[in-house]
Design goal:
single chain; 465 residues; alpha/beta; Spore Coat Polysaccharide Biosynthesis Protein SpsA, Chain A; 15 helices; 8 strands; 54% helix; 11% strand
């Protein structure tokens, strides 16, 4: 159980996150750190000034990039409902995979909801992937004993203990033409499978994945869930459609990704060592010339509403983004061949700049607080006028525009009650940076450890509130 089994090793996609840093990356990282250290020893003031200037420019570029993504999508039609006569459509065989680990509380509601999906039962296969040593979840399944189209698949209890490893095991049992991943607490709209099947039938051949929107069915639980909902409205409602319109790599969400099964097998499924396997798979689809389209359907999830579970979940997401960034930095040539400088720029903005800014935020907050408290001439010396102006622009205009775009996203999702709370978004970023630092440190100490997010199996309300 403590060893990585042969079937995991043999099925690994290349490159993968089994190795955090390649030898070349380790060498270049060491050389860069040595060069910066020498510069600080020889020219401390000038080095800090120029690094500070470079960081501010990066902040400006990144903030305007995200704003461009969001404003590009405002007012775009999300899609169309099922057309009349869809009942006569030849529905393809569909596989639903649900990885389960310590999900006994959420399991009854999950089974009831999946059983009520609007899709021909004879074309449906629902794989419940349960870890072999998860006795509690297996006991609930034995009591409920759901019949066809449900199938209970035991996942070998071996390293790595991750969701993508379970999905790779489930992929061996999938029989559908199309496949979708759901989590235990997910409540997809009843007609989501039919919408996806029709969309695939009408889409170009290079469309291999459809990403449904994600939203929460407990948004009013507390302040954390309210701000979490606003973040999802911005990301799934504006940012992802913007990336699609720009033909950029799309970091998939962790659930409600609908795939062509043949393409998924061609890509060797998921990287079992990446803790945001969906994000990594989105990049690999892009590199192989496939496209991902947004799907006009929503899956409702349970938002983490306690602070520590929220930070644990966020740290896993950040660690996975770092893993994805480091893995695909090893194939910049492939990114360039896929779309030239265009592809490289989007990749650096989505992953590199995103991770860097979250990690650097606390340093700038401390620096700003220190200057406000002391009016230190030492700190002021690093902000001559030609640096101070873009720094203030990044801080004031950038934050204001981000808050405004989040408000617009909430209006488009009809979350009108969330609009005033978007003013608190900058405080939410403090929590995001805490989670980012936890994830970065854990990448060094426990790169494949999966931070489990507990679900309480709350009842789903049809209006999403």
């Amino acid at each position: 159980m403590d060893e990585i089994p042969g079937w995991v090793r043999e099925g690994l996609p290349q490159p993968n996150a089994w190795t955090t840093l390649s030898r070349a990356q380790t060498l270049w990282s060491a050389l860069l750190i040595a060069a910066v250290a020498c510069a600080f020893l020889l020219w401390p003031g000038q080095t800090f000034l120029w690094l500070n200037t470079a960081f501010i420019v990066l902040y400006l570029v990144f903030s305007h990039y995200k704003l461009f993504l969001q404003f590009l999508s405002i007012g775009q039609e999300p899609g169309t409902p099922l057309p009349e006569g869809a009942s006569a459509f030849h529905w393809p065989a569909y596989t639903i995979m649900v990885p389960l680990y310590r999900e006994a509380a959420a399991l009854p509601g999950l089974i009831d909801h999946l059983a009520g999906l609007d899709y021909p039962t004879d074309k449906l296969q629902i794989l419940l992937l349960v870890e072999e040593d998860d006795e509690e979840t297996r006991a609930v399944l034995e009591r409920r004993a759901p019949g066809l189209p449900f199938e209970v698949i035991g996942v070998p209890a071996s390293l790595p203990r991750t969701k993508p490893k379970a999905c790779d095991w489930g992929l061996r049992h999938a029989r559908g033409e199309l496949l979708v991943i759901y989590d235990a607490e997910d409540r997809p709209e009843r007609d989501q499978l039919k919408k996806a099947a029709l969309c695939f039938s009408q889409a170009p051949e290079d469309v291999a994945c459809l990403q449904a929107r994600l939203d929460f069915y407990n948004p009013q639980r507390n302040l954390i869930t309210r701000l979490f909902t606003a973040e999802y409205a911005s990301w799934f409602g504006l940012c992802l459609p913007g990336l699609h319109m720009l033909d950029a790599p799309i970091p998939l969400g962790g659930t409600s990704n609908h795939f062509k099964l043949c393409v998924l097998r061609r890509l060797r499924g998921w990287d079992p060592f990446n803790v945001t396997e969906d994000c990594d798979l989105g990049v690999r689809l892009y590199l192989q010339g496939y496209r991902t389209l947004p799907l006009d359907s929503t899956t409702w999830e349970e938002a983490a509403f306690r602070l520590w579970p929220w930070i644990r979940q966020r740290s896993r997401w950040f660690k996975g983004y770092l893993q994805t960034y480091l893995v695909h930095m090893r194939q910049q040539g492939a990114l360039f061949r896929r779309g030239g400088i265009h592809s490289l720029f989007h990749f650096q903005m989505i992953f590199g700049a995103n991770c860097f800014c979250l990690l650097m935020n606390p340093f700038y907050w401390v620096l700003t607080a220190g200057w406000l408290a002391t009016r230190s001439e030492f700190v002021s010396s690093f902000y001559p006028l030609w640096v101070l102006i873009p720094a203030l622009l990044s801080f004031l205009a950038g934050n204001a525009a981000f808050v405004l775009s989040t408000m617009i996203a909430c209006v488009e999702r009809k979350h009108y009650w969330l609009v005033p709370l978007c003013l608190l978004t900058p405080f939410y970023w403090v929590l995001m940076s805490l989670g980012a630092w936890k994830g970065a440190l854990q990448l060094v100490t426990q790169p494949f450890y999966w931070e489990k997010t507990p679900h309480e199996g709350a009842a789903f309300l049809e209006d999403g509130t």
